[in-house]
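Weekly modeling sync, notes
Attendees: AB, CL, MP (scribe)

Item 1: holo prediction request
CL wants a bound-state model with pyridoxal-5'-phosphate before deciding which constructs to order. AB pointed out that an apo prediction alone won't tell us much about the pocket. Agreed to run with the ligand included and paste results into these notes for async review.

Input as submitted:
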Amino acid sequence: MTMINPGKIKKDFPIFRVKVHGKPLTYLDSAATSQKPMQVIDAISNYYRTYNANIHRGIYEISEKATEAYVESKRKVAKLINAKGIEEIVYVRNTTEAINLVALSWAEQNLKKGDVVLITEMEHHSNIVPWQLLARRKGISFKYVRINSAKDGLDMEDFKEKLEEYRPKLVSVVHASNVLGTINDVKSIARSSHKYGAKVLVDGAQSVPHMRVDVSEIGCDFLAFSGHKMLGPAGIGVLYARSDILNETEPMFGGGDMIKDVSLNSSVWNDLPWKFEAGTSNIEGGIGLGAAVDYLSKLGMQSIRKHEEELTRYALNSLSEIKGVKVYGPGIKNVNDRVGVISFSLQGVHSHDIASIFDREGIAIRAGHHCAIPLVRGVLGEPSLSRMSFYIYNSESDIDRAASAILKAKEIFKMV
Ligand SMILES: Cc1ncc(COP(=O)(O)O)c(C=O)c1O
């Protein structure tokens, strides 16, 4: 396992040469979107400068080169998550679109009135609203697995009871929470769900960028994630789906590229995964994502995970020493059960004030409901939370700066 060296890594990221309010940037908001290394920026710029052309269409050199680069990026993604091959890798815009694609195609075609989709109280809105929309369209219902507040994890007893009671057709669950940081045991969730005949969708937005995620080991049917959270550009995301499921599913969008043949009255669909990618693709996005996967793979997902685990332990320790700070998610003894996302509140101070004070210090953190209102407001009972999240370019000194900024906030708000 290689040691992650954030000082060295930072040199690959031009953004860290930028000053914020005259101070060096400390970026603690990678759960929202990650920064981009030169290798990714160069891959995109090189495509535009030297082989910009549409893919799959041109019988000429630069088009063939663009097609190969796009397909190669899918091979890299397939390898990263251990999919069978590129036929299981559908490019979409982001995690949200990947989940919506499942709702609008597979679920739309296979679920009927009264069928149940089982989700959890820990979900991002992107894994709640598509099912609410499906419920409106088709009369399905959705149920929530409760959170065990003592553990800041899913209540697995409740999960099993709901499987038994509702016999859901789909279980759709977040792998790593963007609020609590909790890593859910998706392997055991998939195994139990399959026993009841349910398909399993894993929201990997916060796991795929930070740890080894192996679809064959987990045994999930669908996995959704976003390129922009894993060093890649925005506007490119991935829906992994088992090829037998994709084969049996009708496409959602029709148009160019997704067909083999078109007559006046009907069409023959293209092979996988192209059947699900109508129209001109986000070619530069795919190429940029390929470069991002190269960057991550070179470091090694296990090394990345270890680095972030150490940072999380360090941060939990630092925060525990500051009176008035409440931290959410699994505690320091269970650091293995969480990713590098730490939501916290400071007694008596609104999260937006905290984020503004951090900003004046050159530190970027997130404040608000984190697109998980049922969790933040409903389960945790907080109007909003501050959140810091880590990646490969963060070091302990970033956390020290964050801890000093909290002390500053306490001073400003005259707290002892
Ligand atoms: C757990 C989780 N799921 C889904 C999403 C949605 O990702 P995107 O906005 O890239 O679609 C996010 C974004 O923060 C997330 O954290």
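Recorded for review: The first strand starts at residue 19 and ends at 20.
Action items: CL to compare against the apo run; MP to circulate these notes.
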